[in-house]
Design brief:
Blueprint (H helix, E strand, L loop, with lengths): L7 E5 L5 E6 L17 E4 L10 E6 L10 H6 L5 E7 L2 H5 L16 E2 L8 E4 L5 E4 L2 E5 L9 E5 L2 E5 L9 E6 L8 E5 L5 E5 L24 E3 L11 E5 L3 E3 L3 E7 L6 E7 L4 E2 L2 E2 L5 E2 L1 E5 L7 E6 L11 E9 L2 E2 L4 E6 L1
Parallel strand pairs: 17-27
Antiparallel strand pairs: 1-2, 3-4, 4-5, 5-6, 7-8, 8-11, 9-10, 11-12, 13-14, 14-15, 16-18, 18-24, 19-22, 19-25, 20-21, 23-24, 25-26, 25-27
Amino acid sequence: MYTCRTGQIVRFTSNNNFIPMWNMPGIPIDNMCSSFSAMGSAVVLPLKPSSNYAFEVAIFGGGTQGKGMDCKGVCNAPAAKTVFRMRMPKASEALKGNWPKDWVWSGNQKYEEMPFPRVFADAVLLPNGKIVVLNGAQRGVPGGHIDGGSTAKEGAFTAIQYDPEAPVGQRITMLATSGIHRYYHSNALLLPSGDIWVAGSEQADCVDTCASGGKAPPDQEYRAELLQLPYAFNPNRPAITAISSHTVSYGGKLKITFDTFGKGFINRVSVIPPGANTHSLNMMQRCVFLKITARNKDNERPRWVEVVMPSKNDRVLNPGPYMLWVVDGDVPAKEARWITLKN
C-alpha cells in the first residue's frame, strides 16, 4: 500500500466514488509520490520471530505525477532519492483505527537518501535480509507523457544495497554498474542461486522538444543480465545437502542438513517466495526468518539445524512454494531448496 502527499487511503466504489478509509502520514516533500504513476519501489522489511514478526515497510525513490507539466517538464522532472520507512500495526490495532501517525525518523529527518535519485526502481529482498535497489531513471514521469506512455532520461545504472539493520548513514553500499538503461516495464527477480535476474525496458531517453510532445522513442530491450552480489564470489558459501521434507505445515518443523566451510556457522534460516513483479512492485515478495529450535554441536558431522515455521495466526506467510536458505553471517547458501507450505 502506497500513500502520496495527503496520506489518505481510499476505497473505490462500484458507482465511481472514493470513500476515505484511513489517514496515513503523507510524504513530507512537495509534489513527490511513490505510487503509480510516480513509481518508486517498496518492500516489507524482513520479518523475524525475535521481534514477533513486526511489520515495517521501506519505500525507495519515486517522483512527481506530472500534473500541470508540459512536454519539457515531464521529460526533465527530477526523481526522488528518498528512502521512507513506516512501522505498521498489528491487524487488531489497525481495526481499531490505530494507524501510524508518522514515518520512522532517520536522524533529524523523516527519510534517508540514496546516492542518486531513482524512478522506475525495482527493489529485491535478499536471503540475508538486505535489499538491492536497481533499474530506473534519474528523471522522468511514469505515465507522464501528455498523450499517455511514460518519460525517462539519465539512467540510474548503478545498483545499491540497503541494510535495514545498519546504523543510519551506513546502510547503503554501491554495487555493480550496468551499461543498459532499464526504464518503464523493467524487471528484477531473485533466483535460487542468490543472483538477481534483470530484464526489460521499452523506451529510449525522452526528448524534451515540444515538437515530439516529449514522447520517448520506442526502444524495446531484449537483453537480460545477471547481477551477482558480493557473496557470489565467496568460496565458503554453505551448501544445503538435505531437508527432512519438501512440504511443511504452519507451525511444522524442518531439519536442514548442510555443509559449511572454514569457520562457518549457520545463524539464520530464511524463506522467500517466487517473484511476481510488475511496475516496480513485487507483490509476492517477503523474506521471513525462521526460528531455530535445535542444532547439533559444532564438531559433529553432518551439520544440521531444526527450524519451525510460523503459525497461521502469525499471518506472515501464505500457503505455496518458497525458497529455503541457510545463512552463514551474511552469506546465504549456494543454492536454495524449494519447499511448499501447506494450508
